[in-house]
Specification:
The chain is α+β, with helices and mostly antiparallel strands. The protein contains three helices and six strands.
């Protein structure tokens, strides 16, 4: 197998981040879990460290939307970390639609480590931080 180019890495990583965001906002938990490695780690402020598919599944099941929501992920900087791994740092704005329209609920940052497996980029670790 040939080495992945920088452009292919960036495109693949961004596609995985985008797929995660759209699945999360639509409440498609199984699609989200499929984007993580079996030994993945998820760090979210205010909750215990989540490790593995079942922990990720339970968390996102509990976070399924009850009203329209959007995670706007931008300014993603992808850095290859050797063949088959990459890091990505992204800004995120979380919006929900309520009775008076769309409103910003949270701003934050994702720091992701992804691994290429069977031709797909998967989350190995996602660390979320909130900005006040």
């Amino acid at each position: 197998m040939s080495e992945t180019t920088y452009a292919e890495t960036v495109a693949g990583v961004r596609a995985t981040i985008g797929a995660h965001t759209q699945a999360q906002d639509a409440g498609r938990t199984d699609e989200i879990v499929a984007l993580y490695t079996p030994d993945a780690v998820l760090e979210v402020p205010g909750i215990d460290l989540l490790e593995g598919h079942e922990a990720v599944r339970q968390a996102f099941k509990g976070w399924e939307p009850t009203q329209p929501q959007l995670h706007m992920v931008s300014n993603t900087v992808v850095t290859p970390a050797g063949e088959g791994e990459a890091t990505a740092v992204s800004d995120v704005v979380f919006l929900q639609r309520g009775e008076s329209g769309w409103a910003v609920q949270i701003t934050g940052r994702y720091v992701d480590t992804l691994r290429r497996a069977d031709g797909k980029w998967l989350f190995l670790r996602r660390t979320t931080s909130y900005q006040v």
